[in-house]
């Protein structure tokens, strides 16, 4: 999967799942419902400002907190194409791939600014900041997890596997 020219939303360290989608909205796992409330407690106007194809760039421990799959569902539904962070909470990492949201570990996220334009090449393992022309290599993603994203998540992959049999 390649992402071309995506606008970045810059965030700090320890962005937890309650910040991504507040617990009061978890009565539904409907993506259309969840996307309206992404980051509401951090910035109530952010969900309406995100465009389809945007990318989040964050610091360490993105997705910490409770182990809800609602967080990557909400991000994906809001239009977020990928999340790039220095590190991810383990359960968020797994939930993201299971929901078909690609995430990339990159140690140099502090060099990427809000609204920079990025291109991601999963095959080459690179992120190019087209605003300042810097190129970064990200930690490789296992092939089977790339397949999860390509299929749109674990459930879609399972449906595909069942239909082959």
Description:
By secondary structure, the protein is of the alpha/beta class. It is built from seven helices and seven strands, in the order βαααβαβαββββαα. Strands 4-3-2-1-5-6-7 form a seven-stranded mixed β-sheet, with helices on one face. Strand 5 and strand 6 form a beta hairpin. Helix 6 (143-151) packs across helix 7.
At CATH level 2, the architecture is Alpha-Beta Barrel
What number is the mean pLDDT? 91
Shape: globular
**SSE-based structural type:** alpha/beta
Number of discrete helical segments: 7
User: How is the main sheet built?
Assistant: 7 strands, mixed
End-to-end distance: 26 Å
Q: Please bin the fraction of helical residues.
A: 25-40%
Q: What's the CATH C level?
A: Alpha Beta
Q: Beta fraction of the residues? A: 15-25%
Please, what is the CATH homologous superfamily?
Aconitase, domain 4
Total individual domains: 1
Q: Order of strands side by side in the largest beta sheet?
A: 4-3-2-1-5-6-7
Return the CATH topology: Aconitase, domain 4
List the secondary-structure elements in sequence, H or E.
EHHHEHEHEEEEHH
Radius of gyration, taken over Cα atoms and rounded to an integer in Å: 15 Å
Per DSSP E runs of 2 or more residues, the count of β-strands stands at 7
Which spans have pLDDT < 50 for at least 5 consecutive residues?
A: none
